[in-house]
Amino acid sequence: MNELTYLTATELGTWIRERKISAEEATRHIFKRINSLNGKVNAIVAYDEKGAFQAAKQADKEIGEGIYRGPLHGVPITIKDSFATAGLATTSGFPPLKGYIPQHDSAIVSRLKQAGAIILGKTNVPPLLMDMQTDNDIYGRTNNPWNLERTTGGSSGGSAAAVAAGLSYLDIGSDIGGSLRVPAHFCGVLSLKPTEGSVPSRGHMPGFEGTADYTSSRHLACYGPIARSIEDLEMAFSIISGGNGNAGLPHGPQVLPPPLKEQPLHIRWMEELPGYPTSRAIRNQLRRFVKVLEQQGMHVEQVTAPPLDARKAWETWGKMIDAELNSTTPPLIRGLAHLMTMPIYRQLPTATMLIPLTFKNYMRVLTIREQLIRSFEQFMADCDLFLCPVSCTTAFPHMEKSKMWGYKPLYTKPLYVDENPQNYWAATTFYTNLFNVTGSPVVTMPIGFDEQGLPIGIQCVGKRWRDRELLQRASTLYATFPEWRAPAISVEPH
Asked: What are the residue boundaries of the Amidase domain, all occurrences included (predicted)?
């Protein structure tokens, strides 16, 4: 049954439509795998087996009546445990929300159900999605299916592990600083971080209703699929994108992809940011990949200077996060926190606070962000794609946090990149949160492995609001390398 396990979601949907297999059979198969393998990986943390089989039987009944909802009709998938799912626990990894069961679906989940998807369960996250490892006091730690002693990344770590291990055909995650891209890179799968605003946020991180009469976290966050093929990314994006309600409304320039140019792709790439070198394995694989693209006739151009002011972008990211997530903290406490943690800010610009937190200062930060967006768009104006690493290293051994500062984990021990110690947050997120600041769409895809057999992915960055064009371009690149590969943990259970 290995063939069935590693079908893409699109392929399985075709099999179900053509009645090569029933949705009920596919659901039974995937639950068998979950029961056999999930204990080791701990990717899926909340199940709805009864509801999944009921939905599968309904999907089969509709197929028999000639009703076909779309490419996900009857396909079993999972959802990150930060999206509201009616009748199914949704905790965001946060102990006060243990046992919280929303009575509504998020906009994304509603659209997936309307498209015929079968929701198997929820995938694990760190508390409040605030770490680049996936572990919490409700469900425990998620392990990388390539090496159980290694992290999956975060915060969509359960999502990436489930798809990589063949425990789900598709998952939807979120990303405010790398949470789709780092887990995809660490687990050897693909992800799409769409253009900011192209996929609805309604119903993400529920359970806090009534704590404020406004919506915080309005910027930087994006929501997108994790899959085993670019075709699945394209299909999922077509279902979940548009508007901010339940109707799947088209969203401006996303309606149709621009026509592809006939001439070879013009690609710019960078192997590392000054001061934050990537591992030798990542550099070598990226060079090898670029060489293959060049041999395919693509116009490849290496750049050594960042395409925007990186430090300014990191500080902007930190100030925006601080302003939007910590706006209710009393000024005195904010001032004390700023003084006590000043040494951290000097080393880690993404931890910069917005002091004082005033409307005028917040508008200044948004203005700086607009300048950074324009700078990057000018860089992208005469090229098709920008390629760069996802993080400084491949999946690293599980690390214990030193302590918690409120809801934020602190790591005082360094993360080693080859023999060189680096700050934990810098090594994991400095390459990714640049593109949350620019709002750019990014496809992350595997291009090889390090000497320990751990996956290596790259970021393929496109132009804002050109997500479908990016997916088409990335598909061209991905076709030059072998297809997705299953990790050792994913062997068919006996």
From this structure: 25-471
Examine residue 314 and state whether it is found in any structural domain, yes or no.
no
What distance in Å separates the CA atoms of residue 287 and residue 231, rounded to the nearest whole number? Answer: 25
Whether residue 92 lies in the annotated active site: no
The domain that holds 395 is classified in CATH as 3.90.1300.10
Q: How many domains does the chain have?
A: 1
Structure token pair of residue 398: 């599980």
Q: Each residue of 76-119: pLDDT tens digit?
A: 999 999 999 999 999 999 999 999 999 999 999 999 999 999 99
Residue 355 lies inside a defined structural domain of this protein: no
In eight-state DSSP terms, residue 22 is: -
In the set 82, 110, 179, 490, the catalytic residue is: 179
- b/e string for 42-59 if b means 16 or more Cβ within 10 A? bbbbbbbeebbbebbebb
How far is Cα 39 from Cα 378, in angstroms, rounded to an integer? 48
Tracing tokens 């080791």 back to the chain, one arrives at 40
179 is catalytic: yes
Average pLDDT over residues 279-307: 96
Give 342's contacts (C-beta < 8 A, 6+ positions apart): none
Distance CA 17, CA 70 (A): 9
CA 267, distance to chain mean position in Å, is 23
Residue from 22, 92, 155, 168 carrying the catalytic annotation: 155
Distance between CA atoms of residues 10 and 16, nearest Å: 10
- Cβ proximity of 368 and 250 under 8 Å: no
| Pairing verdict, β 76-80 and 171-175 | parallel
How close are the terminal C-alpha atoms of the chain, in Å? Answer: 11
How far is residue 215 CA from its own chain's centroid?
22
Residue 318 domain-assigned (yes or no): no
In which domain, by residue range, is 402 found?
2-307+378-490
Contact 136, 125 (CB under 8 A): yes
For the chain, the average pLDDT equals 91
- 202 vs 185: CA distance, rounded Å: 27
Q: What is the pLDDT of residue 405?
A: 74
Pairing state between β 385-389 and 266-269: parallel
Instruction: Return the structure tokens found at 404.
Output: 């918690």
Burial class (CB in 10 A: 0-12, 13-18, 19+), 305: exposed
Report yes or no on 337 lying in a domain: no
Kindly list the distances between the CA atom of residue 159 and the CA atoms of 134, 150, 181, 478, in Å, as whole numbers in the listed order: 10, 15, 11, 21
Examine the residue annotation and report whether 80 is marked as an active-site residue of this protein. Answer: yes
CA-closest candidate to residue 391, choices 178, 191, 188: 178
Q: Are 149 and 395 within 8 A, CB to CB?
A: no
